[in-house]
Specification:
Elements lengths: L2 E6 L4 E6 L4 E2 H5 L8 H20 L2 E2 L8 E4 L2 E4 L6 E2 L6 E4 L30 E4 H17 L10 H9 L16 H10 L10 H4 L26
Antiparallel strand pairs: 1-2, 3-5, 4-7, 5-6, 8-9
Helix pairs in contact: 2-3, 3-5
């Protein structure tokens, strides 16, 4: 996504011109009453993985991936809303957050777990360990929505019960049988994203190794729609 700015000091004015999106993925999915056609589903899923792969390669963890934060722009998905995103050091695999953040239907188990010890001072901030794999869980929740029209824990309405279920390592996620026109690799990718232990989850690089080209054309034209910022004076 490009952004241009123009500053006119003598007039005390600052103009921002941003790329206009067509519609976010959340609204797009609301238009589907039946299963999403395989070609469309694969296009959407591939572009989402590409977007997240791009930011991960540049040391950024989004921490709030959900359909509303993927914007369709001229047929291409772009990732937006980096309000709670964090940079991760090149020599590190995780970051420490001091408050819970994210959207409950897409939030990873570790994003809800305070790793502070019992010896921590009374009233001290929680310590929540997050990594790129936290985004992978969120991607898995979105893929679950694409395949089953709901997120894994959407049926649990009580927020405290939902937190307990998500953070329970013994929780078994249901994977109903998929229609025969969805290839088995869709379920395999889904299960690799929704692993309770972050270390066992796939990376975006792992996901991109799946044979998407069996269904959609892969090439320069399908490169990730990465967010860019352009400034002019």
């Amino acid at each position: 996504m490009w952004l241009r700015c123009c500053h006119i000091p003598e007039a005390g004015q600052l103009f921002l011109v941003m790329e206009k999106g067509d519609c976010d993925l959340h609204k797009i999915l609301q238009n589907y009453r039946k299963d999403i056609p395989l070609y469309t589903l694969m296009q959407v899923w591939y572009q989402m993985v590409q977007c997240v792969h791009y930011i991960h390669e540049h040391g950024v963890i989004h921490l709030d991936l959900k359909p509303a934060n993927f914007l369709m722009v001229k047929g291409r998905l772009k990732l937006i809303d980096f309000g709670i995103a964090s940079n991760i050091a090149f020599d590190s695999t995780s970051i420490m957050k001091f408050s819970q953040a994210g959207t409950f239907n897409y939030i990873s188990p570790e994003a809800l777990i305070d790793t502070s010890s019992e010896n921590s001072p009374a009233g001290s901030q929680p310590r929540i360990k997050m990594s790129k794999k936290s985004d992978i869980w969120s991607l898995g929740c979105i893929l679950y929505l694409l395949l089953y029209k709901r997120t894994p824990f959407a049926h649990i309405k009580n927020i405290y019960t939902k937190v307990n279920v998500i953070t329970n390592p013994n929780t078994a996620i249901e994977y109903p049988a998929l229609p025969s026109y969805y290839p088995p690799m869709m379920l395999e990718m889904l299960k690799r994203c929704l692993q309770y232990d972050p270390k066992t989850r796939a990376s975006t690089a792992d996901l991109l190794q799946f044979p998407f080209d069996m269904v959609i054309p892969i090439g320069a034209g399908m490169a990730a729609a990465a967010t860019t910022v352009t400034t002019t004076k």
